[in-house]
Please model this.
Amino acid sequence: MAGNEDKADKHVPTKAEGAKEHAATPETDTLEEKAKHPPCPTCGEEWDGDAVFCSYCGYEETDAANPLHPMPVLDGGVCDAVKALSAEEITGLKAAIAGAGKSKPVMFATFNTPDDQTPAGIAFSLYNDWTVGLKGADEGLLILYDPRRKRVEIAAGRNLRKSLKVKDSMEITKELAQAIAAGKLIEGFKTALDKLLK
Ligand SMILES: [Zn+2]
Model:
């Protein structure tokens, strides 16, 4: 239940705050209180205090209230956002993805879904963000593993969704979760891909 919790500003000042005091411009403009933000930790510019990212270099502030901000980064089809995978597993996943996808995006991510959100919702958000402008996104596939809930969830492009039966995909995700629990992530992942992309 999302209650009426105190909606107080959750902005947490960054460590860099106060670290670099920019030499001010010659005449100080007192009309507006300038830049609530410290200078950007990446490029040093000061950006609009209401924005969540630096308009000069694209650096994004971490928002504790939004786990997808900034968006986790995908590398070779894999994003181990919560560091749940071994190096071997990441290598194995990338190889399986390179072999499976061809013209459509195939992705695997780990993510601990916050209590007020669903793994399916997170998977969908990641899928949409990662496939923006990508060829074959209609048939793409993202498999999400939530280690905290020990759950696997999938998000798929529109055309792939048409051919997936809900019952089948539920079984496939359950089997993959079991495979992961048994330490057989790569085998389970390959089996899941075979079934989902057939
Ligand atoms: Zn910047």
Remarks:
- The two ends are 39 Å apart (CA to CA).
- The beta strands are 78-80, 106-110, 141-146, 151-156.
